[in-house]
Amino acid sequence: MSHAVELDRQSLIIVLYVKLIVVMTLQVELILVKEQNGVQFTSTTLVNPTASQTNTSVEEERETWGKKIDFLLSVIGFAVDLANVWRFPYLCYKNGGGAFLVPYLFFMVIAGMPLFYMELALGQYNREGAAGVWKICPIFKGVGFTVILISLYVGFYYNVIISWALFYLFSSFTSELPWVHCNNTWNSPNCSDWADNSSVSDIYKATPAQEYFERGVLHIQDSNGIDDLGRPRWQLTSCLAVVIVLLYFSLWKGVKTSGKVVWITATMPYVVLTVLLLRGVTLPGAIDGIKAYLSVDFLRLCDAKVWIEAATQICFSLGVGFGVLIAFSSYNKFSNNCYRDAIITSSINSLTSFFSGFVVFSFLGYMSHKHDVALDKVARDGAGLVFVIYPEAIATLPGSSVWAVIFFIMLLSLGIDSAMGGMESVITGLIDEFKFLHKHREVFTLFIVIATFLISLFCVTNGGMYVFTLLDHFAAGTSILFGVLIEAIGIAWFYGVDRFSDDIEEMIGQRPGRYWRLCWKFVSPCFLLFMVVVSFATFNPPNYGSYMFPPWANMVGWCLAISSMTMVPLYAIYKLCTLPGKFCDRLAYAITPETEHHLVDNGEVRQFTLHHWLVV
């Protein structure tokens, strides 16, 4: 009798254990009814999974970062790029020194960080690329294609900058750097050594470093303009091919491979910047350069242009609007604390910009002291800083070849991970939108990098600098500000800032504070609208030195910019035309999350209520 009771007890334990396993894995509840003649009778009830459980299911299927640090380094590596070195320090010096930090930090707090946080949360919750996330408001999916196109366009010329750095790196493995003297085959009669000519600031004179970049590397003297490009130069084409190969093998397997590459590319710049700073501060005149960088002129804050340049720098330095942050965060675990990530990474980006200023201006102060000229004669931004002024300063140091190698390795690492981010935005955005590409990621990645390489060949011709300048001017200017503006409106107003906050609370267990919600709904959209208007109002046609682009080239540039922006209205029209029912029904479906279309069938449309538009 006791043996039978023991068997019954064991059978009951087994049934309960099976019930627990099934409930956890298949969401099927088993209810024990009775046991008769050794046979157990049960009834079953299907349990609908909750939203978080659905997201967890998707999370199990989607690839995720190997480690949390892989994600953080990838975001930092993308956001911290060449502009942190060649743009921010010069803006700070030109716009009141330390006083420039006032508008910069102001716009960082009211717009930069909120938009950064918004994109990380958007990608992590929906676990899709830049286009796929708009299942939350289908009519806005066009903005996803806008940012994907912008990232693609930027890749056409950004990879060329990396190829220049690679060319300089190869050229640095010599006993004497090739940009030291004027006795090379590419030099013109206008070439003048700093030491041999006191009137070096004369517009008709050019330094050896300047002529090496323009005549020795670019061979721009062999072109009469953008309508006279010539053939691709094999030296730069070879460097570009190496860059493309590096990008492919960093991206072909997804974040599992790119997450490991950034351990080198994202950390190397900090090591090199520190080494260069330690060397720079020991140079004569370095302290004067740093003082000029930090000198505070609060009167400059009365100039509206200072505030506009600070706002512009915030817009572009954080990397918002390229779809990269959305793509990267879509590979996070669902419960990852994206709020903390946003604060950490955006702060590191800004601190890196500020820190690089000490490095840059210690060397600029040295150059000013060495050649006995005013600092503003040597201070500049853009490619001229990293490919002319800095190499020139390095060439005067003992062991110049070693310092040149170190410097250009830093430029390579700064450029590679930013290029990886832009390419990942395109790849993730498209394979998430067109699901059949998931099984062919390696082939599709190869197709994207080869297409990018072929277009980039126009930038490595004799007149390639003109193509580069045109792309740089139009590809990601007004269009990216427009894209982020539509993105902010779509999330905060149509999807709803309250609903978006609920999503974040579901992920991290903490609802965004009122400050963040107010920024998303009012401050950031107004800021972006202002920036779009300013961008149009202050537009100047591109130029390279004294060369002015012909009208047809400007038209091509505007067509490039408009081609990405038109994705927003074109897709909205397409969506409204392809949905069934009357116009009001089609509009309701188009602005309602895809998971809530059944509510539209019942006449429940949140966006058609006043409460939806007023709640914060």
TrEMBL record:
The lineage of its organism: Eukaryota, Metazoa, Chordata, Craniata, Vertebrata. Belongs to the sodium:neurotransmitter symporter (SNF) (TC 2.A.22) family. GO terms for biological process: amino acid transport; sodium ion transmembrane transport. GO terms for cellular component: plasma membrane. Pfam families: SNF (PF00209). Disulfide bonds join 182-191. SUPFAM superfamilies: SNF-like. The chain crosses the membrane at residues 12-33, 71-89, 101-122, 143-170, 234-251, 263-287, 307-328, 348-367, 402-422, 443-468, 474-497, 518-539, 551-573. InterPro entries: Na/ntran_symport, SNS_sf. It is found in: Membrane. It is a multi-pass membrane protein. Keywords: Disulfide bond, Membrane, Metal-binding, Sodium, Symport, Transmembrane, Transmembrane helix, Transport. This is Transporter. Na(+) binds at residues 77, 79-80, 84, 317, 349, 414, 417-418. One of its GO terms (molecular function) is metal ion binding.
